[in-house]
Amino acid sequence: MDDRQFRNAMGKFATGVTVVLTEVSGKVHGMTANAFMSVSLNPKLVVISIAEKAQMLKKIKQSGTFSVNILAAGQKELSMIFAGQLKEQRQVVFDYLGNIPVIPGAIAQIICEVSASHVEGDHTLFIGKVTNIQLEEELPLIYYSGKYRSLKEENG
């Protein structure tokens, strides 16, 4: 199989869209990611996967903390900003949960301390110990087969 076929196959898995944030020396750094999952309930752990070539890799190693912000259906533009898909610069306003930056209006803001990291292939997996969570009741932004999507609520 070639790289394109592998990417196409992985794109058949519908995912939510997250923005991972961290702060180093007073500056917020972020990236869009869909490589996120829960790992354990006790202790509460999640994992994110960051490419070795991504600038975020060094930033998370420096800070030792990050937030995972699960985006709401109306936050496609934020996803595109942090994925580098928009040419023009946009100002992004952050909130803080504790002292960790988060995306306002995200349906879940998950605060983590790095508890372990594992290099696998061309990515590093960061295991995050969840220290705080804030939730909103909105529909999620979905990514499937290379396109942004949204859920439709069923009536009845």
TrEMBL record:
InterPro entries: Flavin_Rdtase-like_dom, NADH-dep_flavin_reductase, Split_barrel_FMN-bd. The keyword Oxidoreductase applies. Transmembrane segments: none annotated. Keywords: Oxidoreductase. Residues 10-150 form the Flavin reductase like domain. Coiled coil: none annotated. The keyword Oxidoreductase applies. Signal peptide: none annotated. It holds the Pfam family Flavin_Reduct. This is Flavin oxidoreductase. The lineage of its organism: Bacteria, Bacillati, Bacillota, Bacilli, Bacillales.
